[in-house]
Amino acid sequence: MNDNYFGSLSRRRIVFIVFIGFFAVCFAQLFYMQILQQPIYSVKSDENSVKPIYQLAPRGIFFDRNHQVLVGNKPSFTLRITPSTYDKNLSPYLEAILGMSSGYIDKILKLNQSYSKFLPRKIAKDVSFKVIAWYEENSSKLPGVDYVMETQRDYSFGINGSHMFGYTKEIPHEVYQKRKNEYDIGDEIGFGGIEKTYEDYLRGAKGIKYMLVDAKQKTIGRYEDGNEDRATIKGDDLILTIDKDAQRVAEEAFKDKRGAIVAIEPSTGEILAFLSAPHYNLEDFSKVTSNEVWRELNTNPERPMFNRASMSTFAPGSTYKMISAIAALEEGIIDSNYRITCGGGYQFGDRYFKCLHVHGSVDVETSIEKSCNTFYYSLVNKLGLELWSKYSKKFGFGSKTKIDIPEESGGIVPSTEYYNRVYGRNGWTKGFVISLGIGQGELNVTPLQLAQYAALLGNYGKAARPHFLKSYIDTKSNERYNVKPQYYDIGISRKSFDIVRRAMFLVVNGAGTATNIKMPDISIAGKTGTAQNPHGKEHSVFVGFAPYDNPKIAIAVIVENAGFGSTAAAPLARDVIKAYLQKGKKDEVKNLGPLPQQTEVSNAH
Amino acid sequence: MHINYKLQDRFDLAIFLPVVGLIILGLLAIYSSTLNHPTASGNFQKQVIFVVISLIVFFITFSLPLQSFKKFAILLYCISIFFLIAVLAVGKTVYGAKSWFGVGGFGFQPSELAKLGTILMLSYWLTYKNRDINNFKDIGVALLIGTLPVLLIMLEPDMGTSIVFLIITISLVFWSGISLFGLFVVLSPGIVALASILGTYAFIACLLLVVAVLFFFKRDLFNSITIFIVNLSAGFFFDYIYKILKPHQQKRITSFLDPLADPLGAGYNALQAKVAIGSGGFWGKGFLSGNQTQLRFIPEQWTDFIYCVIGEEFGFIGSIIVISLFLIIFLRLFKLSAIAKDKFSVLVTIGVLTLLFSHFALNIGMNVGITPVIGLPLPFLSYGGSFQLINMVMIGIVLNIYRNRKLHT
What we know:
heterodimer; A: alpha+beta; eight-stranded mixed sheet; five-stranded antiparallel sheet; 22 helices; B: mainly alpha; globular
């Protein structure tokens, strides 16, 4: 029989039999399950349901560059309420035991009303052991209340670091909508600083325990003896570039001041210390953050939440003079023998720009050493706005350094375009440019940019993008991955650097403006500055690097409303430099213990 | 009655009404499973919008001239392939597979469009003028048309959908009258290629099987040796391709071959689905009263596990009604394939029938625990915009074929 033709009868039969056959099998299976086996499945459904219990993964830990713990984890108890079985009359008792204001529990329950009644809500984090003991004794009288063990951040390692570390909090609704596949409601997510940038490394992976529960959600055993469970995977630990000692000294120094310190290793871009003062207490964020804490942080006139180190912008004052000097040397407008006479100021048109002293005959070296304004008023006039702003941009001003935390400002480097935009084509005069020569006027820089500028000066124009992450330890393989710095060279001749660096050396070690911080064993080079502040007393600024011959640390310090750079900012810079360099000598002999095997990766985020 | 008769003559209510019934049951089940759900509570409203749009598009498809489907076949197929390639490059990942385009708040799945494109294109190619189904060149092109989307969808990776494409391709070739020997020549290289990945023993066993079948057919020596060499090289070629793939691509193929090694706990879902359906009993636990559904023991119940909402809340009666409605649709389509006007219409009808049936069988089979857990939605019931839309377009086309069954051109 030949049935090899289009739509043949025997083939139609085969297809027909498949339909009827499948229908019959389904019918039989449904009959078997829903009629014959119904009692068995019914019991399973009522008493033997499998419920996945999710276990949060501990976040990765932060270490400093010498493998000292900066931020750790500690176990904590979280008390929860499941509305489907909870009795609201219990609220007053619970509130009294937990020390909450009356009506607090009701408020939290109302807040999450849209979620299923069967999902537990977190009522209090970091509950004391006493409360848990009380709960264990009375749990039979507390339907719908339970607790879980979680880990929370431990900040008890001696430094604060709030602005660089950032914090974690429960995932907000908008973020959750975008990352539904990765997060569940109530999960913690990094919310600022390093916690946010490296969230994907730090978070780890949740574990699942399958439990057998009855219809009232009471646990009656493990499903498949736990063979189907998935283990929790702890987040990757991060080894940061921070030096704990330098950071601690910086924080001590700023205890009663406002301002910022950023210290960078010039050859690698590794950030050694990063501080914005006043800071806030990260501990407050690891609990369910109360409204009072939020209100206090947000209304405090000192703005503790504001990251001054990488977001505040100000005119850098005399610390900026090296830009004009290098630009003029590079462009051949002056050489090291070029001199002017400072008679205490500079006449430009009908305006007189003042210098602090009468310096007499001044060359470029002395102009930096003694911080002569007259020299720079005249120099920037020769240089012109375009060249000045070109060299400013070469040193990274006017744009973000692309540091690995989300909080950063780019600052402003004025140019012809900028002035035209702000004042209109004829609305500004060349006089505007004169004050830029001494780092005043509409120039705006961040402490981070100044520190990177110091690093470039220290390392002859070769540096790397500033960053916090030195390496991370992959939890699964226990391998250490080193982050390769992103090196760059701004292409300025060694000759120009030699002149300017020499002058910066004399600022501290010659007859300059910061001889008060001269040290016998460490040669610091630097430059003081006083930043004009339209809202009050001037800010004290210092940039520098050390040791002079082979810089290991570059630093920028700003102390708000503290006047001259030499009096307030420079000694703080010296303390941090000392803490870092002198410890370095001691540390060479110290054994750090075995570290995991190392691998290079080019870019971690 | 006269008017009704005329309506039935142009519009097959025996297909349309069961489809509407299934859509309504689907909406009820979606409502029940997403009520109070923290993230999916908007799905019911969205699905209502999808249904309305799908019905409009259905009537448009129904009203088009029948010839237009033949005309658009090539274009539609090319667009589908383009989108399938594009989605691999820029698509977004949902449940571990790159198969969606995000447009505003809604997602669009190119593999849905490809279902339509592939059925039309295959039907067009297989029925064009005097096609000889047992000619190597003609069959080769047909296989190329069918397997290109399969390969692209495999890379997403969406195993269920690529299986559906394979079934469609084979059934259309089968319906076109390919000889048993031809079918063997067509299928064997694919099987040998897959076996080559499973290991040397599986590969050798498969090759021995090929040799045995070749002896059975007793064709001339030259042809037999050629076919054997084709099989052998298919195995080596696929193995070679596999080895030069990156590890994550290899993993996609192995997970494709081993559907039971589901990382998301397929075993758990299947068990919960069976408990839900079984505990429903004869009458069911009642609308919105199934504790398996309401306590959400089965994740994403409104897509692949929609059938167990029906099973739990509407019981044996509800479950039987659903599969009976499907059976009515299948039998009507089956009958239509015998009375359709031309070969192209017949093949399109068979293509749609195969598509709906393979979705139906694999989905219901998974829910009641008689087939492996392969993630495929249930036509007309499961939540999903592009899925609903393409299914209604298919129904529009077959009802269009029904309307034109007696006309001559």
